[in-house]
Amino acid sequence: MVSTTTNALETGTSGIRRLPGQLLRARLPWVPILILGLILVCAAFAELIAPHDPLAINVLNRHMAPGESASHLLGTDSLGRDILSRLIHGARTTVIISFVSLLAGAVVGTVLGLISGYFGGWVDAIIMRCVDAALGFPTVLLAMIIVVFLGTGTINIILAVALTFWARFARMARGDVLAVKTQDYVTLARITGVSTPVVIWRHIFPNVVNTLTVISSLLVGQIILLEAALSFLGLGLAPGAPAWGIMVAEGRDILIDVWWLSLFPGLAITIVVLAFNFFGDWLRDTLDPKMRQAQ
Amino acid sequence: MANNQTILKVEDLRTHFFTRSGVVKAVDGISFDLHQGETLGIVGESGSGKSMTAWSILGLVPKPAGRIVGGRILYQGEDLLEKSAAEMREIRGSGICMVMQDPSTSLNPVFTIGNQVYETLRMDSRQSRSSLRQKAVEILSSVRIPAPERRLASFPHQMSGGMRQRVVGAIAMARDPNVLIADEPTTSLDATIQLQYLTLLKEIQAATGAAIIFITHDFGIVARMCDRVAVMYAGKIVEQADVLQLFDSPSHPYTEALLRSVPDLDDQTDYLPSIDGQPPTLDNLPIGCSFAPRCPHVFARCEEFPPEFEIEPGHQARCWIRYGGN
Amino acid sequence: MQKYIITRVGQGIFTLWALTAIVFVSVHLTGDPAIYLMPIDASSKADYEALQRQLGLDKPLIVQYGIFLKNALQGDFGTSITDRRPAMDILASRLPATLQLAAAGMGLAILVGVPLGILSAIKRDSIFDKVAKIFAVVGMAAPQFWVAIMFILVFGAIFKVLPTFGRGGPDSFVLPAFVLAWSIMAGMMRLGRSSMLEILDSEFIRFARVKGLHERLVLWKHALRNSLVPMLTFGGISLAGLLNGAIVVEVVFAWPGIGRMLLDGVQARNFPVVQAAVLASGFFYIAVSLVIDILYAYVDPRIRYSE
After folding, report:
1. Which whole-number Å values give the CA distances from C306 to B113, B158, C4, C36, C295, in the listed order?
2. What is the pLDDT of residue A4?
3. Is the separation of the CB atoms in A252 and C164 below 8 Å?
4. Residue B37, by phi and psi: left (phi above 0), alpha (psi -120 to 50) or beta?
5. Mean pLDDT of all residues in chain C?
6. Among candidate residues B76, B87, B81, the one with its CA nearest the CA of residue B179
7. Quick one: pLDDT band at residue C307, thresholds 50, 70, 90?
8. Which is nearest to A236 in space by CA: A76, A96, A46?
9. Sign of torsion, CA B207 B212 B217 B222?
10. Which of A284, B325, C171, C206 is least surrounded by Cβ atoms within 10 Å, i.e. has the fewest?
């Protein structure tokens, strides 16, 4: 008991400085980390890893069952495209869309949350009303509105996802700001005439980083699920693109005879989301045990 | 005051916690007697095992980590450690009850005061709504709750801390228990309200004849409330005596140190002596006297665990100095 | 209490109004509705201007919005461009199916999720707790559309025990309602477990035991009532997810509700229908949030009596 107190004192109060030490001391969740590593490698080097071109059509080889041919381990789809290759390229689609929308949501949300918490008053009131609206609004509905008016495409799907998730970041960042705003060192900086952006960036932002890391990792799973659902409904990417949601949709009409078309991409989504969820839980428990209740 | 009949007898009680980092001996071989109508103070720093003694008596040691590993708790001559869960439930509330430290969290925030009083009264007998209500008003007015009829419909958050603590006291005494354990019941109250509450407890005791175990770290309260005192340190009772004996001739260095750190209103020094060092962690105690590392009188013999020495009739201390050392 | 409800109703009406404004502005920013609404066979300029006049598009925007709002309040969202039926009629014919599905899903999530979560907390670290955890964790990670398809494969095609298509008897509700409920149920279980564990560790639970209360009352009266507060909050948050899920589930199970109507409308760029469905969903969402807020105040007196 005594030893943990001393450690906390030694490592200081800054969120950033506390990060690596705490992470190293905890037991790592190896299985999720390996799965996530694999996904990232697939996304980065899809061309090198995939045995076939994911878009190469070969009608003669259509509907090959998994294991029927050594060169198509997971079988082929209705156009004779290799499912394994499409899955590997699908990892890239998933990673890009979810990370870009996560980043967009996190940046916008954090900035608005910092502003909202720091300035308070009517600025805070307006931003928080928007947060409530965004949190409550069904995303698929939002994506539909966007798609109706802007059309389909990667950018629009990212926009739809980011528009939903920024609010989570804003709310958390605001809460953290309110907690540190009244601390003496922040007051001191303000009194001594440090400019507001610098106060926020140097003194407040570092305190928010831990929370943001944790929420990001907890939200990735939900973002992937949302992106997949939008793709499945045909609200996202162009038909035929190697995205897991689209692949599940492609197998839907011929489910009974060609079950593997829908099975594998759905399994891939489930496993990746599981890995992210476990990793996020671990990160939360390690970095910020208090958040268990807040969530 | 106290007649001599023993209502509760604790013998060599040991309550240990089995955690990942080792065994924590929260209560480690304590014995004391509680007589009818008397008030026994248990004094010590936080973490000395005072509260865990209370939970052990009530049969509510936190599971699964905590376990009573030895000793006996005789209530009216029967060993509580051999009772079934259902039998213990019968005894709690009607035989032994307790008020806890924080009045703001002892009452369930989502039910009215009335609801929480009724459910307590209903345990003894099925009664009609109106007689239940009448009884509830009675016990609330016995703790000086103004307008008790109206208060029955209030929620806990609508009352002040002092009033909430009095309601908790009323509920605890509702079934006329023979033993009331008060675990620092006034710590979170303002000084003036503290005094009112202590006076009230005394009155209730006089009216009902209940014995009280008063857990505290405040010798001022001990002087006001208690007949006998047990001083606990690191899971053991290091000194036990009548209040007057203890204040006159503290016989364990830890008791002396505690008494010295009580602010004396007559004394004009603004410096408050404190005890050097930290209370030990209970999972890694020294083999001998556990106070030795902080004791100013420490000598070679302290490496051995000290037995209980009789200082005078009814006054014992666990310290080698009393054996004639030093 | 009255003040609280009035404030909440006011906020709900404001949100709904904001939604109409967003829909209206979106429609007008992204192009001329007259072009979308033009019948395919009539394309002369005279027809176009007639349509513009008919739709009131020659008037100032704010007046147009007033007309739109007035019509919407009377339940007139225009006419579907595909089959020329009033959008409101289509909505009315689809609404019951969606409401039934949503009620079945939410009911299942609460009736199963809450007790399972509480049992997990009481029987902490038991086999039951572990199995429940796996059930919950998978429910939160598996995409609904895929689970739906796999269920159709297993229960419809392989074992042929349950209907997988359209709305019929009670058995046709089983698969759609479960798919819709699973992730919310999972959330309820995890949240119910953690809040129950926290509550079981609180002083008032200890005091309830100290005064000799029967364990049954301690758990199912004192602890349950308190753990309902966070679960109700979660129920409110899940509403958006419920609507998302309803769209997906309706599409996969060919359920004749608003979700399918929306998706079909989007694909056909059928604005009046989309408008009607979006506003109806918004209305449903706001109304249920309001009910939850009021329930919330009922369960937690600290909210009821504040201010």
Report:
1. 17, 10, 9, 51, 15
2. 34
3. no
4. left
5. 83
6. B76
7. very low
8. A96
9. positive
10. C171
Alpha helices in chain C (DSSP H): 2-29, 33-37, 45-55, 61-73, 87-122, 127-141, 144-151, 171-200, 203-210, 215-217, 224-252, 258-267, 271-299, 301-304
pLDDT above 60: residue A182? yes
Cα gap A18→A3, rounded to integer Å: 16
Residues of chain B with pLDDT under 50: 1-2, 326
* Phi/psi of residue A44, nearest 5 degrees: -75, -40
Cα–Cα distance between B319 and B290 in angstroms, integer? 11
> Contact C110/C235 with Cβ under 8 angstroms?
yes
Q: pLDDT over 70 for what percent of chain A?
A: 87
Q: What is the pTM of this model?
A: 0.78
Half-sphere exposure in the Cβ direction for C202 (13 Å, CA): 22
Give the Cα separation of B295 and C100 in Å (integer): 74
pLDDT digits (tens, 9 = 90+) for B162-177: 899 899 999 999 999 9
Measured CA to CA, the distance from residue A251 to residue A261 in angstroms comes to 5
Q: Specify burial of residue B316 (Cβ count, 10 A radius: 0-12, 13-18, 19+).
A: buried
Q: For residues B230 and B40, is the Cβ–Cβ distance under 8 A? A: yes
pLDDT digits (tens, 9 = 90+) for A19-67: 455 555 557 788 989 999 999 999 988 888 888 888 888 877 788 778 7
pLDDT value for B267:
53
Cβ of B60 and C210 within 8 Å?
Answer: yes
* pLDDT of C30 strictly over 70: no
Of C240, C290, C288, C305, the closest CA to residue C8 belongs to C290
B134 part of contact set with chain A, CB < 8 Å: no
Q: Classify burial at A5, counting beta carbons within 10 Å of its beta carbon; exposed 0-12, middle 13-18, buried 19 or more.
A: exposed
| Tokens (6 digits) for A130 | 């928007």
What pLDDT, on a 0 to 100 scale, did the predictor assign at position A3?
A: 34
SS3 of residue C44 by DSSP: coil
Which percentage of chain C shows pLDDT scores above 70? 91
Contacting residues of B for A2, CB less than 8 Å apart: 278, 281
Q: How far is the C-alpha of C106 from the C-alpha of C291, rounded, in Å? A: 14
Q: What is the pLDDT of residue B1?
A: 44
Task: Please give the single-letter amino acid code of residue B248.
Answer: D
* Structure tokens that stand for A2 in this block: 């005594």
CA distance A27 to chain B (A): 15
Query: Residue length, chain A?
Result: 295
Is there a contact between B278 and A2 if contact means CB atoms under 8 Å apart? yes
Tell me the residue type at C128.
F
DSSP-derived pairing of the beta strands B179-183 and B96-99: parallel
**pLDDT attached to residue C299:** 78
φ/ψ of C151, rounded to 5, equals -65, -40
Q: For B250-260, b where at least 16 C-beta lie within 10 A, e where not — what string? A: bbbbbbbbbbe
Terminal C-alpha separation, chain B: 39
Distance from CA of B70 to the nearest CA of C (A): 22
CB B36 within 8 A of CB B218: no
Instruction: Considering only the beta carbons, identify the residue of C143, C153, C237 that sits closest to A229.
Output: C143
pLDDT confidence tier of residue C210, bands split at 50, 70 and 90: very high
Which among B209, B204, B243, B176 is positioned nearest to B36, based on CA atoms?
Answer: B209
Q: Two tokens at A161?
A: 């996802």
CB-nearest to C146 from A148, A248, A274 is A248
Burial category of A205 from C-beta neighbours within 10 Å (exposed 0-12, middle 13-18, buried 19 and up): buried
- Residue pair C136/A278 in contact (Cβ under 8 Å)? The answer is no
User: Is C143's CB within 8 Å of A277's CB?
Assistant: no
